[in-house]
Amino acid sequence: MQSQRADAAARRALILDAADSVFGQHGVTAPLDLVVEKAQVGRATLYRNFPDRTALIEALLDRTVARIARQVETLGERDDALFEVLQGMASRIVQSPALADYWRAVDPDEPTIKAARQTVHGLLKAPIQRAIDAGLCRPDLQAADISLISSMLGAALRGKTREERARLAGRALQLLRGGLGGQVDGGR
Fold first, then answer.
1. DSSP at 185
2. Per-residue pLDDT for the chain (188 aa), expressed as one digit of tens each?
């Protein structure tokens, strides 16, 4: 029975990997048959795991949030953990442009998106505070600012190729790091 669960989890992960790849190439409106083909599973297996496109996309969002949680945990008490997480976010934008664009386009008050955003904000409160305490980060940075930072990183989506997106994301990170470490604007 345990091996059946392990097999099911492996198939689910395979489908998510395939969906991430297909959506990255063709956008989130790509035919789900392309996901089935890429994952080399039957259509029934896809729909048993994800009854519709929305469920599949929400599972990809959940997986992204789980990756951020694992990264925060792995980085532990490092003062620069915030910047490592931002680097990871930029990498995901480069690797999964269609999904990143989807998250930017969806109403931020949509319950799944709102919950994911709140979870990420909660995960980053301690890394933000450590960066502030270490003098690496401006003292007025708040967890809610992560959504704005993510949108700024999302400008990398303008790149037509993966290489161009990577270059734009890298430059955005350079600019953001400078701004995050900058002095607080007195007029604010």
1. P
2. 566 688 888 999 999 999 999 988 888 889 999 999 999 999 999 999 999 999 999 999 999 999 999 999 999 999 999 999 999 999 888 888 777 777 777 888 889 889 998 999 999 999 999 999 999 999 999 999 998 888 888 888 788 888 898 899 899 999 988 888 865 454 44
- Token readout for 113 is 């998106």
Reported pTM: 0.84
Closest CA to 131 of 142, 120, 121: 142
CB-count exposure of residue 155 (10 Å: 0-12, 13-18, 19+): middle
Burial class (CB in 10 A: 0-12, 13-18, 19+), 63: middle
Cα–Cα separations (whole angstroms), residue 39 to 7, 16, 34, 67, 97:
14, 8, 8, 21, 20
181/141 Cα distance (integer angstroms): 10
Distances (CA, A) of 92 to 5, 68, 118, 169: 28, 10, 19, 10
